[in-house]
Amino acid sequence: MKLELSDPVWDRLYGPYGVRDVPDQLRALAARWDGPTAAHLFWEELHHQDTLYPVTYAALPWLAEIAPDHGPVMEFWAQVLFCARRDTDAETPFQGLSLRPGDHGHPWIAEARRLGEADMAVLAGLAGWLQAEGDGLAEACIDAVRADNPYEAALMLGGHAGWHGARDLYHALQMWTDGAALSEIHAEGAPRARDRIMAETLASRIVRLQPRMAAFLRDYAGQGA
């Protein structure tokens, strides 16, 4: 589901600072992509402290259409994929996208601008879009791994892993890129079965571009055996 930018529901789709001019920012980026404008949109309007919001999910189909598929854009996609499947339940298919109207009654949003029962079908449609596109976006993260940037590579792999439920792997990769030894990483917690399987899978995918990271992933997987 891609909402028209003129749809009145945008007046109730909030982000970290309430309802803002996200449709106008998307219009501007569709007309001419601009890195600083996109960065502001990503990290000020759509994501804040590992938290996503209803407006985040409304913007994603537009960004999939108009954004280039490299660099900072892929870093944003990876972060979205990692965060989206955190703290979910039957009525919250993705983090920040609850289908319970009462969950959107935040005191920092004017009552007239709060999402209501009639808007839940829209949120469910947005959830359906990400559910359908998420695997492809996770694959795009792997395709974006480069040989010259291990920090960016860790972020790309973390997005893919988090989307597929291997959440501890992302933190292990972050520790490794910061110079932590395997023993330190293992002391934080032994990898679960899903993390071990994903580590082996990702190691085989990136071994030519990031051989040291691939070796770490294999060692990490072996620690949980």
Descriptive overview:
The protein is an all-alpha fold and 225 residues long. It has helices at 22-31, 35-46, 54-66, 72-84, 120-143, 150-163, 167-177, 182-187, 193-206, 211-223, and strands spanning 47-48, 51-52. A hairpin with a 2-residue loop joins β1 and β2. α4 packs across α5, α5 (120-143) crosses α6 (150-163) and α6 (150-163) packs antiparallel against α7 (167-177). It is globular, with a radius of gyration of 18 Å. The termini are far apart. The model has no long low-confidence stretch (mean pLDDT 94).
Helix-strand layout with pairing:
Blueprint: H1 22-31, H2 35-46, E1 47-48, E2 51-52, H3 54-66, H4 72-84, H5 120-143, H6 150-163, H7 167-177, H8 182-187, H9 193-206, H10 211-223
Antiparallel strand pairs: 1-2
Please tag this protein with its features:
225 residues; mainly alpha; two-stranded antiparallel ribbon; 10 helices; 58% helix
What is the structure about, briefly put?
With 225 residues, the protein is mainly alpha-helical. It is built from 10 helices and 2 strands.
